[in-house]
Amino acid sequence: xxxxxxxxxxxxEKDLLNMSKTGQWVFEMQEDAYDxxxxxxxxxxxxxxxxxxxxxxxxxxxxxxxxxx
Length: 69
Fold this sequence. Notes:
Elements: H1 2-35, H2 38-45, H3 50-66
């Protein structure tokens, strides 16, 4: 019975590690989207991720408007 528990625990630890890696990847893309032009972003992350750039830029524009800028 303990072997079953250990295998579930190992799977959960692996899943958490993968989620952490995914979270880091998304965070890096968001940082890049804020700092890069669309062309630079697409060159690094690919055209399939350009929606991330657009979302970050829209949020940045909204924050600037909210600050009265």
